[in-house]
Protein 1
Amino acid sequence: MNTSAFFSRAWTAAVIVAAVPLHAQGRGIDTTFAFNKSGEVNLSLPVGDIRVTAWARDEVHVVASSDLGPISASFSPTRVRLEIRGHGMSRTGRARYDVTVPIGVRVSASAASGTINVSGTRSSLQLTTASGPITASDGEGRSEIETAAGHVTLQRFSGTTRVSAMSGSVTISDVTGDLELEDVHGTTRIDHADVANFRFEAVAGSLDFSGKLAASGKHSVETLSGGITFRFPADFGATLELESLRGVLEPGDFPITLRPASGTDRGRSSDRQEYSLNGGGARIAINTFSGSVALRKIGAPEKR
Amino acid sequence: MFSYRIVTRSLAIAALVLGATAAGAQVRIIRRPDRASDRDKQTQANAFQWSGELGAGQKLILRNLNGSISVERASGNTLEITASKQWNKGDPALVKIDATRAGKDVVVCARWTAETKCDATTYNSSNEEHGGGWSRSNDTEVSFVVKLPAGAGASLNTTNGQIDIVGTASPIEARTTNGEIVIESSEGPSVAHTTNGDVSIHMVKLPAGGGSYHTTNGSITIAMPEATDANVEARTTLGRVQLDFPVKANGAMSSRRVSGVIGRGGPLLDIVTTLGSIRIEKK
């Protein structure tokens, strides 16, 4: 038995028997212990990879290694915390956490430079990188995903999902509930969406949305120069409130109608126009400076 | 958390303000109604008079260089034309006005020089380089007043002057360079083009062949009945397009460009300005 395995089993035993928090330090961890599915996992590292998967067992399995510096670990039946201590940290190398949690455990993970991959937890996720990709699936409840220079790939999210990206691309598929996105320069692609409330903000980032927006929801898109493409089902009804200085609305093969100016807009110079799609429906406020808006039917071939 | 809302809003607001400033900064022709030179102008009323029959399907072709054209509906089939001259400098007698029959149409020409070419298709009235045309040495203006029979058409052209049309009931072409065009008619004009000036058109029905309404530096306002069927192509470079009618889009749309169908579709209204807004209202 190697040293890390020994310590790992010792920690597990301590948790199970004593049911009290365990604090430890080391450069390698491999342990499994009982864990409450309402618990939370907090993982952080400066450089390296974080991988979290889920299983049906009420246990946590932690495998961690680091050649950056010592791993500071804290384990209890409701909380796991792993981080790399700054003191004595190497300038080279990386750390790796590979954690398996019960389904439903909340996950918080952050990396300054590294990858985060979370799948199958069906729980609230808080994932942050300064530089590095984030890949996650099966988020439920409130999830917040943030990166400065990484790509974000999400799949099967429900509840409230919030994504911020500075320059990386964002790809989301199979999303329901509320969706909020801020993407400064990257491209955002959303597929198979059925969203209750939708908010997208970008400076030069583009948006390609495919799916449905709830008729009763609040939906807004703001961008300076990024292009916006909405792909809706052929019978989808919407009311587009478009305010753009230089952008245009390209209806594609959708029947759209420019509604007469009304209210305070009537008779005054305004960039605000209201369009109905299939007679109206989900109200979408779109505000751009020069970004244009294209409408496409889902599945329609791209026009060249 | 990254929050770019403030940055985005600030930049957008700044851009909108700049845009609005640019849009509002259109060059306007400023009238100077009380210039001493205008007050001191001499006038020769009834400098020209002509009348004759002009039936349905026939057309008046009126060519002017410097001065306004005003048209109203005649009570019968007689076309009546009068013209006055106003001047500060020069000899108004050098400016000749004539009317001739050209086939079934009537061609009226104001000629600033003997070399002026004027017929149903051509108008070239040179100025001082040919000795005595409209120039600083001869600022004669010719203002026409026309009574146009119902059903008769008209092609009206001037360079410096407003065109006003009231109560006509046939397709009219109105072209000027410096001056606004104001038309209130039962049937809308087929052409209303100016470069520096607004275009205002009130019509009961659209011209069957469609209408072309253009200006460069000015706004365009069109009023037409609520039950109008038309196709519309309206675009402006620095203004806005606003309609009281729902428009089914058949192309890219924006606050500066509207392309689509009003009602069930019909004659094409081609409406273009560069520095100005477009407004299409219900009568």
Protein 2
Amino acid sequence: MLKQIEGSRAVAEAVALCRPEVICAYPITPQTHIVEGLGEMVKTGELEGCEFINVESEFAALSVAIGASAAGARSYTATASQGLLFMAEAVYNASGLGLPIVMTIGNRAIGAPINIWNDQSDSMALRDAGWIQLFAETNQEAADLHVQAFKLAEALSCPVMVCVDGFILTHAYERVEIPTQAQVDAFLPPFEPRQVLDPAEPVSIGAMVGPEAFFEVRFLQHYKHFEALRLIPELAAEFAAVFGREAGGLCRSYRTENAETIVVALGSVNGTIKDVIDGMRDDGYPIGALTISSYRPFPLDEVKSALAHAKRVVVVEKCLSVGAGGIVSADVRKALAGTGIVTHTAVAGLGGRPIPSSSLRTLFERASLGALETVHFLDLNWEIVNREIARMKGQRRSGPTAENILRDLGLGAVTV
Amino acid sequence: MFQVRIHGRGGQGVVTSAELLSVAAFAEGRNAQAFPSFGSERMGAPVIAYCRIDDKEIRLREPVAVPDAVVIADPTLLHQVDLFNGLKPDGYIVVNSSRTPEQLGIAEFTNAFPAGHVCCVPATEIALEHIGKPLPNAALLGALAALTGRLRIESVVAAIEDRFSGKVAAGNAAAARACFAAVSSTATSEKTASLA
């Protein structure tokens, strides 16, 4: 049914259609509306056969999901930002144990300074934790990816994060086709666990493993991700056949025919990028875009072949590896090693800084002229940055940076 | 594409207002995207919400920088925040106030807009009368529909009834209709005046 609906509600309805048996919830902005919606559906009986567990922290949320999944229940939770960091130990446990939990991340910046707005630093911080990470471009895709995520997770016995840009998607009302229960049932079979805690057939899960076997266990996680590279496109094709629309896959090209410049990005910013590319194509620029939907596993071969004919690539990313630069662009550079294609990093949108189409247009025009630096910080206020650098050089006790900058901007930081 | 920016304060229902607007547009078969820009999440803090309406898929995810219409739910923001920033020269302005643009000190600015593109409507008073609470959000959508002609009042009412039920729905729908009627009659008299 086509609905005009909040992104979080669309995700909640899609998750409910997947017949989860245990949902562990701890609220954190901007993810809260998702588990609130699911809690309501459990309470009204709209979602049957599901235990909704309010826990005391994010660490507990994922730990309970781990226990439930090990006992053979289809398990789901959601979090964001500091919440994801707080459960970090359990994030590694879920993947290390091979438990097919699905977790939504309402992507949000990480403090300090405290910030509730969107970027993708949280998912990126856990990119090497062994979870599959799928990024949604629209709320339709956010809903659809959850249906695929349960099937993918359970096929591989590997947990999946579905990453949804906080506020920009989670709080956006737009049209979403919510599938029918029959469609989802036709696509997603009941959970058949590979391992299960059963008093009738006791096993232990989570044994201590020494140097003689740990390496092999870890390698087999890596192997599962290679399996995922094969399975993700298969599931996307199967999904399209059942639901009549495209969603997911490894990566998707947009107007890259004869493109000399190709823009690479994850998540909702791809919508704005596509609009900018249409405008530049109208003006004769040979430019296109590549949306990466599966960030882990990272589809090195597919990204390479999608970009192979470009002269240059601009990776627009909502994250920063402090001291190193781009995170997504490091993976893209790995894919393009030896090709001679120039790769630029454009760090953008940190802490919810808007990414306007006008700024992207200027950025892409500069790239097209070969005038873009290797690492660019989109719309960074250099005047403010330089003022703080001068302050730090000028006096030992220059004070806290965030508060100094708020004062420089006239935004009323607390003064002592 | 028709883009609306709504300014208010936390607790006034500004975000709900943009969401309802998108649902009303959806009811007319159009594509719509509503989203908030929260400041600090607290009562009384300035809040902005946006709504885009188009006949094709909306992919753009940036905040609305060049609105076709600005709705101001709290006129005390008028001299604190740059509410009209980027507003198109032939855009629309709806202010929740029982005072006139002259009394609000914005006439010099608003007089530059075409006749019938600016209205002040006492939405809070109308809401108090119909809902019993000073929640002007739904009422202001009635005013916006009347001023711009972009949306039928029935669609606004349908969005309200989709979101709320019982007395709350009835009160908000009545407030929206009352604002729609108030602005429609003003617009008619203005047009008559300009014809004369």
Protein 3
Amino acid sequence: MATTVIDTIPAHLKPFVPSPTPATVTTEKSTIWGWLTTTDHKKIGTLYLFTALFFFLVGGLEAEIIRAQLGGPNRHLVSAETYNQIFTMHGTTMIFLAIMPLSAAFFNFIIPLQIGARDVAFPRLNAFSYWVYLFGGLFISIPILFGHGPNGGWFGYVPLTTKAYSAGINIDFWVIGLQILGISSLAAGFNFITTIINLRAPGMSLMRMPVFTWMAFVVQFMVILAFPVITIALFFLMMDRFFGTQFYEVAAGGDPLLWQHLFWIFGHPEVYILVLPAFGLVSEVLPTFSKKPLFGYPVMVYSGILIGFLGFGVWAHHMFAVGMGPVADSVFGVTTMLIAIPTGVKIFNWIGTIAQGQFKATSASLFCVGMVALFTIGGISGVMHSSPPADLQQTDSYFIVAHFHYVMFGGSIMGLFGGIYYYFPKFFGRLLNEKLGKWHFWLTFIGMNLTFFPMHFSGMLGMPRRIYTYDAGQGWEVFNHISTIGAYLLAVATAIFIYNFFKSRVSGDAAGPNPWGAGTLEWTIPSPPPVYNFAVLPTVTSRYPLWEGKQADIESARINQQSGKTAEQLGIAIPYGTIKPLLAAAFMIIMFSGLIVGHWLILVGAAATVLALYGWLTSPLEPEHH
Amino acid sequence: MSTATVSHHYSSTGLENRKIAIWAFIGSECMLFVSLISTYLIYKDRSVVGPYPHTPWTDPSTGHVYHAILNIPVTSASTFILLMSSLAMVLALSAVENKGKPQRNLGERILGNSKLWLFMTALLGLGFLGCQAYEFTSFVNEGLTIKTNLFGSTFFTLTGFHGAHVTAGVIWILTMLFIDFKRGLGPADALNVDIMALYWHFVDVIWVAIFTLVYLIR
Amino acid sequence: MIGSHRLRRLAPLGVAAVLALALAACAQSYPNSTFTPHSDLGRSIDFLWNRLMFFGTIVFVLVEGALIYVVIRYRRRSEDVTPPQTHGHVLLEITWTLIPAAILAFIAVPTVRTIFQTQAPAPANSLVIDVYGHQWWWEFRYPQYNFTTANEIYIPKGRTVDLVLHSKDVIHSFWVPQLAGKRDAIPNHTNHIWFTPDSNMATTVWNGFCTEYCGDSHGEMHFRVVTVNPDQFASWVTRQQAPGFFSPPPAPAAPAAPAAGAAPAAPAAPTPAAPTATPAQLAAYILPRAEVPDYAIPHTPFPDAIKFDDKLQGDPAAGEKLFVGAGTCNACHTVAGNPLAVGMIGPNLTHVGSRIAIAAGMYVNDKPHLSRWIKNARLMKSGVLMPTLGKGQYDPQTKATTPSGLSDQQVADLVAYLQALK
């Protein structure tokens, strides 16, 4: 343990001591134009947070409709066609428009703060990523309101999604929308890789980075390597649908499995992209509320990297029923079992973090403990799928639905909620109400288990997936009924959260720089941080500067927490706000929509995009400084 | 203790941000082309109808005889042109980096002329694109379009993606050439030219892979 | 006190036992359960499942137990205490890496063995059934016996059945949970799944489902598998091999009296008639309706919007004429033995009268349901190719009302014909 000179440190900068509550909350007045032109990672992170929460509610509404329809046998609340659009959009919305952007909210806001940087490497590219996400999200979500929603499942298997079997524009919106969203993620990937490699404060070696930033780092590599593959898969489908190529045309010798392989080579890393950020958040929250460092930091880092690698080697476990042959089945079964090892090790290390500590149950820490508990269940069912012969009963049944909701909801969403409670004060300078937060947690925990645990049973008792209704007397009614009740409970829990979120933004208790007594760099600056983040760039000598840091670390923390100066006073150049990233994003979406509207629009949109890019690339990022 | 301001070029690695970003971008593009090439290879020999790349084919319904579509000699020439463009790019970068140093003889003046080598790179790149255009139109005239069969779809998509990347590169080079004429390029621009060169060499390497796997290997 | 301590430790076990018993006792109300295998493949899978459950339960109890323990035992009791700042423990890391690896080895080895055993080529004397998935029904051909049927198969107990899976359109998946795992039916691919139904199992019906999302009515693409004794199977085969026959035979139509003063009517051109049944064919085996378990009989209600006069009596001979006439059924359907009825787009109807269900297991095979199905199939099942045949019926695909079509009497005649094709 580092030797700090305790007596000369201000009380609130001693390890584990929360900062005092400030008298007022510093609120910066922002205009709408300010938001539209922002290049500040903190504002962009806030935009991601709000938009992602909105789409989470949209996906949740779709889920409630699904559960209402399936609550009893032979119901007809919605027709089969409508149901198929709703379950497609539920998956698409939750994965691409809710969970990934919620993670992005934290990447944006927190990574630069955790590594001691003033912003990301490419602030305008960062804004571009957000606007592409927003416009792409609207592009893919609006059609369902007109009955033309994507209806091929979130995984869009061919030949069902080829023109021959999906003649309408539903799938066109899906294909184009996903391409657009992919560009958003790719741009962010390049941005954060560069940021994490290159903008760490002096002394912050890679093995001193907080684990959240490490997990985000692994995720960005997975993004830039996995998304090109689905780009190509979608491009082939787009070419088949719009220009008559033969990639997936059975009559020409096309192989439907080509789509499946390409999709899952992306799709499996994608699920680790969805869960690793939540792993990172849990790795920040649990140490803070246990008052001790993360147990096994190097193992947590290496296991994350290993998951990133192995994640590219397990994709065909989604295809155990397609008849790949015994060798391929065996290989992918074994690799899938192998990936359970680094994942399981993380669970044990989180338990080890709490052990011997002084654990405090707050909304944040409860959600993270809930994440560990529920992800364990999802991981166990995952190992059960890894045996191909056993999976022949499990795959495409509700047993799988149970598994992935345990890891996506019980894993990603619980961890992300924990992160929201933890970082809300840093974002907004106020605390979320703890009492409401605990209600939110318990109702969510109970509701989640009520909804998804019975699905293990209905699945193994023969209920297939993606069916809009089921007959009476098949042995599934009780389980579906319980699931539907659980879903309604989740709606209540979420409503409490939304109420808490908006109320606390306005009248929550004020939060100082470090309301939790945490140890990492983001807590050495005010809440919310000034536009420049750090008045002085910190030098870092340990993984937990506020717990294990040397005198210099504490000194810079004190300066940064109390600075109160503007960027001009400190001589720090701030990137200009500019509308060009938004324009480039908008024109790009217009260009893509030309595939549906008319090919002339592709050219017009392309030209406009190029012009916007030209203006962007030839204007300076920030004022010249000496 | 850190100073109040940070050097604009502060970085943890000593490298510029753009350098790291271009390498990440190239890594990502590798996966893009690996997917395209893999699809081509998987679908090789699976076309139900011809024309085919290396073997002749008689259409049973019309009796028309299609010869093997790929033209190795022409494509070897275009490959050579593209490789030479990479050489020109190396010289262009070197010229930009060494701008301002004394040029003692004609040879050094030629080698140090950034405008010349940027122009040559773009010209050779356009030459490659011209060969591709000639190839594609002759294939279409001979009966192979992107819709004809699996070979047509995979071949034109793969080479089309590559050609689009070459085109983007040529536009980039011409822009750089324009700036060289407008205000001159010097050592301060070396990083930007370096990044462009990295992209260009990457596109060239991908072509070598495509040429080998599609044209040369049967 | 020792007694209560033991009681407290045993209590959870007791609860678990009661629950397990309750579940087991209710086995028969879970007609699609994967927990009660009835074939060799089912048992191989069940063995792996039990091993997975065994280890899964152990891991669950240990991990969740440890988590609950640390959260309670190490809860914060005072704000002034700084806990020991442990950073890790190498031996612990190694241990909890190696133990899961060992557990996985116990799973991997039997897994790989089972994969190679179950994916070896099917035994040479297997019963071969070619399965063709269509949107949204199942075509079954028995190449060794030279007949085609749809949506319902009989298989003999104790004999290996090799299901050869194809698709005519999109990807489907063939699943009978109580008999075997599933396998996808993919266009341009031929997949196999083979298993041997137990010799000593019940003669009964098992539900089958499509388990790969295949469009509008993926949720209504069911089939039935009937496991019968070998002699019953042989008998059923002879029925299926026979061309469509009337059972019971239709009453002969009375000749129409010529109108006074009119020239005698020319004799009508004979239309090919379904032959009447031979005694052997009438005696050929089908599972008696009384022995069909309730879970295999669909309960899907038909839409109220389709009105039909259920009291109408139909004439099978008239229905047979309509089948190749105004009904245009022969454009899509085959009835073996009728050279005019060779349509290949829809299910084979040669012995449709003896099937448990219609519309790929969606509706029970009785007069009210079949009548409405013929009258307006599109309103009964989303997205189907079969046209809305009734007159004045709303077609949800064209979003228009049919100006012309079959009358209720004509439908009743067709129903009588089809129900006679046993």
Protein 4
Amino acid sequence: MRGLLMTLAAPVLAAVALVAQAPTLTNSIGVDFVLIQPGSMIVGKFEPPVPKSADPRLEAMAKAAAQPGFPVTVTRAFYIGKYEVTQAQWKAVMKTNPAIFQGDRVTDDADRHPVENVTWDDAQAFIRRLNALEKTDVYRLPTEFEWEYAARAGEDADTPWAVIRERAVAGYNAFFSTQMVGSKKPNAWGLYDTQGNVWEWVQDFYNEKLFADPTPLRSGKVHVLKGGGFAADVKNAIPATHAAGPGSKFDVGFRIVRDVKP
Amino acid sequence: MNHRWWPGTIIATIIVASVSLGASAQVAGIPEGFTRIFNGKNADGWHWSRTVHHGTTAVAKVIDGVLTLEPHPYGQGGLLLTDKSYKDFELYLEARPDPGFNSGIFLRSTEGGSAYQIELVRPGNTGALLGEQLRITQPKYLGARTDINTVWKDGEWNSMRIRMVGQAPHLTLWINGTKMWEVETPTNDQIGGFYGGMIGLQLHWTSTYTAGAGGLSMGLPWLVQRFRNIAIKEIK
């Protein structure tokens, strides 16, 4: 009987855990967060298309290079920034502003542009100081898998280019500076600028491969960048892109995760 | 990558370069006063962009003193960049792309591949001045332009000499010793108003990761690009 009760109680408790967290929240410096629920996705799928009526060797080469990808499960809910960290938020925490696109390099409110020209170490310094400000330890960079899961928002296939253009501050010779965060359409889970505007640092080291390995590296020379910046193309401003630093500096920023405390 | 030039490396480079030059009499070789930026043995002093949309995992091989750039995996190109940045310079190199290969010489490039570009594709617009992730304000051509088809030799080594001077750059291109064009640009079009950047050798992508993006695919992924005798003279 007791076993049965536990069996019945488990999904109820899980459901309680899900609804107990607010779907969105805003922290002390105005960072808006969206709650991301656990789930699974396929990472690293590589099935390059070949043109119709092409040389028959193309299809054989494409098939030989294809990779099915591998499943990744995000086991814990987490909050992730609805937008990239802005210059105003950076200034509130760090009292400086390293961004290239401020002053006369922008025509609107630079405070609402993403901060850029920050290294991975700079992003970590911001996070340490934010945690100290709020006397907590909940803030951190997303892992690459958390970032990609949130950016995909349930989409397993690559986003069609027409949709990317609606969502992304990116595209061939389309943008030459950052734009204010949230200027394009969000993804299905309400996140803005996961594609384009600035490349975003994640926690992981880079493996010098097309995609992440199923088990992230414990050390490396540079860290992974995701999502593409304003000078990226629709080809690589996609959640699957596994890029790395240093990037062009003026299009490198980040968004933060806030852990869900039990 | 290791940037140091050991004496053994230099000697080997001279021997290789002499053999290479002997095999193709139509190119004049590195002009006097230029400094080699490709050592003929390995890709020291160069690195692949990790953020360019053409790809991040292409392969650079040095075969008989020739820098051979290959897409990898299927359809993924790349951008091989100098570790060093340059402002005003003359660049000399020799190129022998497979016909059909879409490539280019990037000038004042960012790490992510925003650059002035000299297009390099046959048949096609080889020698054209383009902006890659950069909008070039309409330049003013000084004098006549030469038809690329009168100077380019498909399947052979072709020399390219590019002079780029000034914050709003004044550019001149010579191919196989013939002046192709000379332009004045009215503004500096580099993103953020920066002045200077890396030299880049482009391998254009030919396929997306999956068909989901729309299935666009172009070019032939077994084609390669070849360069040799890459040298620069900085203009201070």
